[in-house]
Structures are given as C-alpha cells and as structure tokens.
Amino acid sequence: MAAGTPGRGRTAAGPGGAALMVCLCLHLFLSGCIGAGPETVITSPVTITFWHAQEGQAAALLEKLAAEFSSEEPLITVECVYRGEPAALATAVAEAVAGGGGPAVAEVSEASLASLRAAGAVRPLERFMVNRHYGFDVSDTEDFWPCLVESNTADGQVWGLPFSHEVYALVYRPDLVPEPPKTWDDLREAATALTVRSPDPARSSFGLAVRADADLFCLFLYQNGGALQAGDPPRYCFNDAAGVVALDFLYELSCMRRSVLVTMGDPLEAVVDGRAAMTIVPVRWPVRDPGLTSLAAAPLPSGVRRATLAPGSSLVICAGRSPAEEEAAWRFIRWLTGPENAARWAVATGYVPVRRSALEEPVWRAGPGRDPAFSEIVAQIEWAAALPDVQSWPEVKERLSAAVYARLFGQVNSSEALLDAVLEAGVASGP
C-alpha cells in the first residue's frame, strides 16, 4: 500500500449520491422515460480522444484497456493522451471546449467539476445512464461507493463516474507502534509517548507528523460530527462547536503536548526518515517507503463517529461532441468502471476500487484482497465524506488551510481562525 455530504450538511451514512442515482433511475423508470433513445447512433467507425492524468505503468495500462475495449466495440477507437495532473487537465478541458475542440472523455479532479459544469464543458450522464440498451441497471447505481457518487452529483444530475481514488489512513512504523491507535484518546496518548525531544531540534522525533491544511481539519471535523456546510441554501459553518473542538484537539497535540511535527510538505517523508512514528495521509496499496522497508497502515482513529476522505479523479463526457462520440464516450467510461476493470485498475495502480463488487473479483481477491490491513483501509470508504461540490470550495479550501496553519503554530485561537475563514468564505461564495 503506498502512501454525505458531511461537506454539504449530510453525513456520509446519510442520503448521498448513490441514493440520488437510484432515485433518478427509479423515477425515470416509473415515469416511462427509462429506455428512451435508439439502440445506438453509432453506424460507422468513430474515434474518441481520452485525456488522462496517468503516467508510467498506469498510462500503459490505459492504452491496453482502450485496445481491449475497441476489440469488444470494433466501431469505436479510443486514443489516450496524457495531459498533466487532473486539476491542470480540467483547465485545459474548459479552454479546449470553449474553443470548439477538446476530448470526448477526460479524467478530472472532483474539485474541478463545479467549475466545469458552470463553464458548460461537461455533459450530464442521465440520458446515457437510463438507456435500456447501454445504460445502468439499478444494481450498478447501488454498487459505487456513496461518497464517490456524491462527489459527482449536483443539481439532481450525475456528471461523472469515479475512477482513481485514494483513501486517508494512519501510516505508522510497526517497529515503534506495535498497536495503532483506534480513538482520538489513543492517538493523543501514543503521540505523546512516542515523542522524544532533544535540545537540538534536528535530533527530536515526534509521535505524529501532519500536513497543516484543510484536508487534515476536515478529517477531524467530520469525525467530531461536524460539517463544512449546512442550511438551504448551504452556507459554510465549520466554525461551529464541532469545528472549534476539532481544531483545538490538533492544537493540543502540536503546541501544548508538542508531539506533532507540522509540515507543509509530505508528512510521510518524516515517518520514512525516522523523524516521526505516525502520519495521516492518503494511501495506496502496498504501503512502502522508497527503500522498500515495509510500513504499516490502519484505519484512522475515530472521534464521535468514523470518517475519512477519499480524494481522487472522475471520468467525464465533454461537451461539444457529436451524438456518436458522446455515446462512444459513455460506452467507454461505463466499461472502464465496470466491476472487473475497476478491480484490475485498482490492483495495478494501488487505488481503491470505486465499487463494492470489484472487491469480489478474482484479480482483487488474489492481490490486495489478501491483505487484511488494506482491506480494513478500503472498508473505511463506506463512511467517507464528500467535500463541497461548489465553485467557491477551492478558494475557501486555501483560506481554511491558512487558518489551520496559523492555529497549529499558535498564532490565533481556534474560534478566531475558523471565524475569519468562514467570513472570507462568505465573500468567496457570495450571497
């Protein structure tokens, strides 16, 4: 393993994106809309372009999968093109579509979906999902992890299919941590006990290393029963009691107990080089350091409830393509995210499978599925939270990261830090 909306006022266990997908299909079925459309509009060979963010072996696997797809769909050719990491790729998609070009399929970060929708650069998937000839069954809509679907759902529509996701977990050195902490109290005790301070700061070692950013805060906010947004229309509310307690807990560890190494870089490096015993990071399978010395990973210690994040990318159909290209794009992304291929992709890349049934595929069961620790990591995704799918979130996230940094370095108290971030968020999101 390498190293609902709670973000919109719903818990990860509450009614989320998967339920919306099921309700959508059932509504259309009962209203007689499901199955509308011809069997196919592809009557002659069509070539579609797929812009992706994968490099190395993952990119080679995409080429192989695209060729396999074309052997099953001989009228469709998929050209895979690497266009940089998902966030930059989304910007390229928006610019290309605005200019009348662009790909038929793109892999984009979840955080960029709101801006792509606002720009009219992506197509909703409803009419493809409900087509009786090549759409989804209700069983498909229930199969994807709820938080991943919710991240792709807005305005009663599904705009993408989840593709490449990691999940946050506790990574630790088993030679220093024989039993990983399971609760906040356990984490506090373990981090304190494992910290060894020296007059020479360079010789100190810490129980925990963290990156001071919004993701860290969100993990503890959700675990403390809080939410980033609430109300109708939703407003940012992360400065409430749940948020203050969560940030105060992190402050206690870092400043009062001095048992946390706070960094703006990769905290996993501190664990690898011995400066820290534990960290909280997104992980893939298998977790190893560059020297191939095995590390260990465990589910995150829980607060008043379990929660994690599962950041990643989605597959979208871009606007401005012909009906035949759109259908070809849908057929490809549905095939690529099917149970067998979702399992193959996860095994080869270390990402978590994006749907439950992939865990039963032989290729998964013979690989990561045989690792009990990673199976526990993957199981966390059942209660993972979705971050806000609104245009203001990237800017608000930057401001929240600055507030977390300021608090963990003792520059302000938690109430002031979060209140300032919420007030700035109100400016970012508008009235």
Shape: globular
Number of strands: 16
Nearest-angstrom radius of gyration? 22 Å
Mean of residue pLDDT values? 88
Taking the alpha carbons of the first and last residues, their distance comes to 44 Å
CATH architecture of the largest domain: 3-Layer(aba) Sandwich
CATH superfamily of the largest domain, by name, is: Periplasmic binding protein-like II
CATH fold topology of the largest domain = D-Maltodextrin-Binding Protein, domain 2
Give the helix/strand class: alpha/beta
Specify the biggest β-sheet: 5 strands, mixed
**Helicity, in percent?**
40-55%
Count of discrete alpha- or pi-helical segments spanning 4 or more residues = 17
Binned strand content: 15-25%
The order of strands across the largest sheet is 2-1-3-15-6
Q: How many independent structural domains?
A: 2
CATH first level of the largest domain: Alpha Beta
Q: Unreliable stretches, pLDDT < 50, 5 or more residues?
A: 3-15, 26-34
Would you mind describing this structure in some detail?
This protein has helices at 17-30, 56-72, 86-98, 113-118, 126-129, 138-143, 146-150, 184-194, 214-223, 241-256, 267-272, 323-336, 339-349, 362-365, 372-379, 393-408, 414-429, and strands at residues 46-52, 76-82, 105-109, 153-154, 157-158, 161-165, 167-172, 206-211, 229-230, 235-236, 260-263, 276-283, 296-298, 308-309, 312-317, 384-385. By secondary structure, it is an alpha/beta fold. It has two domains: 11-166 and 311-370, D-Maltodextrin-Binding Protein, domain 2, CATH 3.40.190; 168-309 and 392-426, Periplasmic binding protein-like II (D-Maltodextrin-Binding Protein, domain 2), CATH 3.40.190. The strands form five sheets. It has a five-stranded mixed beta sheet. The longest helix has 17 residues, at 56-72. The radius of gyration is 22 Å and the shape is globular.
